[in-house]
Write a structure and sequence with these properties.
The structure is a single chain. The protein is an all-alpha fold. Helix 3 packs across helix 4. It starts with 5 loop residues before the first helix and ends with a helix. The radius of gyration is 52 Å and the shape is flat. The longest helix has 47 residues. The chain has six helices and no strands.
Length: 197
């Protein structure tokens, strides 16, 4: 309808605040709202009256046929595709007694058999996988719950052949740790104590 942005509305609000004043501004907004409501009601009544008049005179049917022709003129590819779809639908409605109908029924039966066999095979595979998973879970649980159970021995690596003996290198004798020497004061005190006794 009107192309008013937030900035235009802000300017209108400021001008209204200055011109009308803050005291009478709510009254003005209430009256403007009532006027807009009445205008919308009148527009709604007018559009319903026009739609009723169009229904009575048959304008809708004419406008729908005009719309179809305009659509065909503006979108020829879409119209051609609609024609192809309608022709293809007539080809799929075959007489079941004709040779083509019998062949189509035979192919449909084969397709259903193939779908059923693949569904059965998939169900069997899922069942087999579930049974294997259950067996693995039970085996793992048995290993955990039975502490005395022995696990299969792991293969030991083959023993290596001993290498030829080489003459041992002479090692230097290990040093003995030196005895701790007591501080001189303590030893002097001990000797003095032993002399007094």
């Amino acid at each position: 309808m009107f192309d008013l942005g937030w900035t235009e509305l802000l300017v209108v609000g400021i001008v209204a605040l200055i011109v009308v004043g803050p005291k009478d501004l709510p009254v003005l907004f209430r009256r403007v709202g009532q006027f807009v409501g009445k205008a919308k009601g009148m527009a709604r009544e007018f559009s319903t009256a026009m739609n009723d008049a169009a229904d009575d005179s048959g304008m809708r049917e004419m406008s729908s046929s005009i719309n179809k022709s305009l659509k065909a003129a503006t979108n020829p590819v879409g119209t051609a595709m609609d024609g192809v779809k309608s022709a293809a639908s007539s080809l799929t409605n075959l007489d079941p007694e004709s040779e083509t109908g019998k062949l189509a029924a035979e192919r449909e039966a084969d397709r259903k058999k193939i779908e059923a066999s693949t569904a059965r095979a998939a169900a069997e595979r899922k069942q087999r996988e579930a049974a294997e998973a259950l067996a693995k879970a039970e085996a793992a649980e048995a290993d955990v719950t039975a502490p005395g159970a022995t696990k299969p021995a792991a293969k030991k690596p083959a023993a290596k052949k001993p290498a030829a003996k080489k003459p041992a290198a002479k090692k230097a004798p290990a040093k003995k740790p030196a005895a701790k020497k007591a501080p001189a004061k303590k030893t002097a005190a001990k000797t003095a104590a032993t002399k007094k006794e």
